[in-house]
Every structure is written in structure tokens, then in C-alpha cells.
Amino acid sequence: MLLGHAVPATQVAAIGDRYPQAGKGSVVFIKEGHLGGILSLARHLWSADLPPGKRAVWIVNMRDVRLACMFIGRESELEVLVDLAQGRTPELFVLYGRRRVGKTELLQRFCESCRAVYFQAAQVREKDNLRAFRDALADVLGDGTGSVTFEDWGAALKFAADRAEGQRLVLVLDEFPYLCEANKGLPSILQRFWDSTGKSSKLMIVLCGSQVSFMEEEVLSERSPLFGRRTAQRRLEPLAPPDTIGFFPGWSVEDRVLAYGILGGMPAYLRRFDDARSLGENIYREILRPEGYLFEEVQFLLRNELTSPATYNSILSAVARGERKVGDIALSVGVDSTTANKYLSVLRDLGLVERRIPITDPNPLRSRRGTYHIADRFLAFHFRHVQPHVSLVNAGRGSRVLEESVAPDFARLFDEARVEFVLDHLRREAAGLVGEELIEIGRFEGVYVRAVGRTTEGTTVAAVVVPEGAPDEAKLAREFASLDEAFGGTLVKLSYGITEKPEAVLAVERVPAGELF
Asked: Distance from the CA of 480 to the CA of which of 96, 134, 186, 374 falls in 20 to 30 A?
């Protein structure tokens, strides 16, 4: 058994050559700071068929083991890739999503399951990338491949198709936009290859990129030479709220919800927080120090995606300050409403900003009641607590920012994060409690009713957040009356509280008919 942290045996691979003595029935004691780089634990570690006196005892780093064994929330995406690889038809799969969302780790895990060449492009000249691709091919194919010289990508892909020799061969081209920087005609080259050779080969080609706008416009759009060639695509989104709690088993449920409220669902961000330290210490170390991994992350993201980040910075700052309408945002930034709308549209396409329309609005498609909000949790945190205090952080006074700006905001951050957990539950699990499928879900700005769903049968589902202490029954009744006025019909109430169970956050129950709460 593994003392201190439970890892499912199905997620455990081989311990490797470094600790060959850890045999069956070994007991592993966890201690911080001893081993930094262990990839996994022995699959047979949990077998107890050795006498106690012959069991090996090893000291390893709990966090390294946990993070190495962790592959959270990407099971469905991995299943899609594996299913495509096991098929018999050629595939041209496009995977894209923001930097740090976990594309590379997903692809590397996928490549472990099949005959695959994983190649990550660099921002270098085309010949250098072709040489590196040849070396990656040689690692898998062997047979003198390492001595081949490719004149262009058409020749490289043709060579791979020929050497597949009637068997499935997966080619992963990670950071595809970098390849196109060196040769802007690469999409056309790939089109010609696919039409002449690829579509009748045994290849599965995966094109992956972090520049969302590039992948959508230059690879997936109608004006791309590759339009109509892709066989499948997936935009990889941040992890859902419940999938983030496994990163911090040593923390209370409240702190895990708060961590989501600050970091959102980006795996790379979540991995930076160490539950051996307090939440506040992690915020200071990773966000509020000049050398912190996440201090400049937002600016890296905006520069990676946008051509004029200064204006986008100003718009995001205005939204973070509470400006909700286009006219107010435009006035705050100093641009006209048409210009503000254009920038907001780009931010919406990137998933950084959202326009929320009240679920009670009878005509949402033409609604003028929409309000703008930052959709990404970490961006919202950055523009509320980091951007206004950059000078203090650079002066080494991040602890003051934590004490005076961040800590007083914990209650609001927790409340916002909890609502996102509730919305996720409505989307994915509430149908089991209600007995009907939910087809529409949205926020509700009540004190107690925080989200609402509508079912295929016209039932209204009210998500009621359990308050501390006794609720104001008159106020709660008014919120239910407001829903009845907007929708009518049957009203089902779901009560949401916080649980201390390590595998969950929400305690959910259906309120019996006729009861208020």
C-alpha cells in the first residue's frame, strides 16, 4: 500500500530502473523533498504476497508521485484519440486550445498507447525542424531513417506514409503554428500530400497548436487549404470544476474550491500550487513575486494570441473593475462602442470573456440585458488583484498585496467558484435527481437561488445554495415566485451544500415537494 495518498492501481506503471528493489508488497513511505523526478510507482506495489520481513521500504516525494500518476479530467479526450488510432481509416485530427491547457501531456499519454511519432516543433528554420522530425521518425522506425534528408514537408510525410508498411502509424505535429511560421505554404503542402497520398494511407496525423485564433482561421476555416480534409477536431478546454479538486488532497474542501476560484481549470496552473503549503503561501510564491511562475502568465497568453495586447489589457481591466455594458467599457477604455464590440468579440472567441444573458429573459437572442464578464478564473483574478499592483509586486511587496487585496476577497472568490461547481453539476448530473434532461442552464442573481435549469418537459430546476444559519424564508419565497412568474409550470428545488468528503465538493439533495428549503 502507499501510505499517505491513495493512487488507483490502474493508474500506476513501472517504477523504472532507479529503484529496482521495490518489489511486490513494498510499503512506500512518503516524505517531501527526497526524490524529485520519479515517474510512477510499480504496478505490483499493492500486492501483499511477500512476508513482512522481506518488504522493501523506500522514501519518495509524495508530490512528485502524485503528479506523475495524475491524469485528471481528460479520459474522454484520450478515449477519442485511442479509438481513432485503432480504426482502419486514415485520420487527420486537429487538436487545439490555449497554452497550459494540457494538450502536450494528453498527446504524450496517447502516444504511449500506439505506434506513434511525437514531434514538437520549435521556432527555428524549416530545415532544423525537418531534421528534428527525421530524428523523431528514426526513434520509432529505425532502419536507417536517421540518415535520410528531407527537402520539404511533403517529402517527409510521403516517407512516413511509405514506411508505415501497411500498419497504423500516428504522426503528432505539436506546435503546428511554429512550422507554418517557417513556411507559410505548409497548409497547402499538407493539402496536396493528403489528397495524393494521405487519404489512402495508414497514417493518423495529429495537428496541434496553442494559438487558438491561428488554428481556427488557418487550419479549420473555410478559407484554409485544409478545409474539408480534417476527419475530426477537438478544442481542449480547461478542466471542469470537480476535476480540479484532486490536485490538492491535503487541503480542506473550502481551500480546494478557493484554489479553483483563483486558478480556474488550467492543469499547468493547478500543478504549481503545492498542498504541502498553505493556500496563501502558494498565492504569494507563484503569483505575487516577480519570479513567480504565474506572475506574467496572463501577458504571455495575450501576446501569444493578440496583435495589440495593450487595448485588450485595458478592456479586460475595465471588465474586471465591474464595467458590464459595451458603452461603459468603451467609455472606460477611451474607444467608441463599435471598436469595443470588435475587441470583445475576439475575446469571446478565445473564451476569455463571456456575455451573460439572464435565463429569465424571454428573448435571449435579441436581448439587450446581456452583461460582460471575464470567463477565465485566473484572468479575472489577475486583472482584479495583480495588474493593479504590479509595481508593488515588482518592488518585493507581494505579501502586502496578499494581505490587503487578495485575502479580503476570499469570501467573494469562494462564492463565485461555488456557483461554477453548481452550474457544472446542473449540466452533468442533475438529470439523475430531477428525472428529466436539462436543456437550458443559466445563472440567477438571487441570494439563495444561484442557478436555474430548464428541462425537456418544461420543468424549472432551482439550484439553492445552502446558507449559513437559517434562511430568510420571505426572501427565498420571493425568489421562487420570480421563477414562477418567468416560467410557470413545475418547480423542482435542488439544495446545494459543501461536503467534507475528499472525493467531492457538493452535497446535493432534492427538496421535497411542498417544502420551502
From this structure: 374
